[in-house]
């Protein structure tokens, strides 16, 4: 018992000293009002708890009320400044590299990769952005409408083959992941898509975690999932590269082919690592956004019979 008490006192004292050091360091900086929370953990736990309860906006509002529309915090191991409002958005989105350089939380930069488009600057950023934009144009996406429609139909029939009850959010996440895999990245193997989906779910959870790489933590599982994703992706990249060289496909076939083509033409600037990192980034970015939007649409239709009827009549 005495040993446990000694350990508890030692850890408590160290924790208290770290807290004091953080406060002294914090006062020396020209930073907005706010709290960096506990060392390393910051305010991550309360933020994640709010997200789980769908109270993220309330979490922000509490701090805006206390500190103002610009406040500091610490999330996922990274000191963070939150800016609220139209003028703040204009500043973030309109500032050039001389004023503001994008810097992602450690969890995102390590799980997604340090060469993801949000971390790149200069010519590398322009080349990667060009490769993505060339495929994401409305004219390019319109050519895939028929394929997307067929994918949705097939997936829906498969999911309702043995049951009439579908968990909406889970269904939408799997559906959007399948569409992204097939249409955006040209991955056709169902088993491979399923394996990717499993690991990306783990990786996505790691992005919203404390960056402690110890066995059993969400971050540790996320890093291992990223390694498996890369191991499965590299043979696909090599195959698509060979197809491009031998004329069996073209750069506009999918985003991976577009990125590989840019790398071929700019060998000294673009690397395979950049292709991998931006593949992981795009998959993580599309993991929840579209799925949540479509789930909310279903929820709205279920709550409003009049709108539901109009949509049904429109079909």
Plain-language structure description:
68% of the residues lie in helices and 4% in strands. The protein has 315 residues and is mostly helical. A two-stranded antiparallel ribbon has the order 1-2. Strand 1 and strand 2 form a beta hairpin. Helix 11 crosses helix 12. Pfam families: p450. It comes from Centaurea solstitialis. Keywords: Iron, Metal-binding, Oxidoreductase.
Task: Describe what is shown at a glance.
By secondary structure, the chain is mostly helical.
Topology:
Elements: H1 2-27, H2 44-52, H3 56-67, E1 70-75, E2 78-83, H4 86-94, H5 106-111, H6 122-136, H7 138-142, H8 145-159, H9 168-184, H10 190-207, H11 218-245, H12 255-265, H13 272-303, H14 305-314
Antiparallel strand pairs: 1-2
What's the SSE pattern?
HHHEEHHHHHHHHHHH
**Count of DSSP-assigned helices:** 14
The low-confidence parts are none
- What's the helical proportion of residues? 55-70%
| Main sheet strand line-up | 1-2
Radius of gyration (CA) equals 23 Å
Could you report the average pLDDT, rounded to the nearest whole number? 83
Q: Given the helix and strand composition, which structural class is it?
A: mainly alpha
Termini distance? 71 Å
Find the count of extended strands (DSSP E, 2+ residues): 2
The coarse overall form would be globular
Q: In percent terms, what proportion of residues is strand? A: under 5%
> Biggest sheet: strands, sense, closure?
2 strands, antiparallel
GO molecular function: heme binding; iron ion binding; monooxygenase activity; oxidoreductase activity, acting on paired donors, with incorporation or reduction of molecular oxygen
Protein name: Cytochrome P450
Pfam family, one: p450
Keywords: Iron, Metal-binding, Oxidoreductase
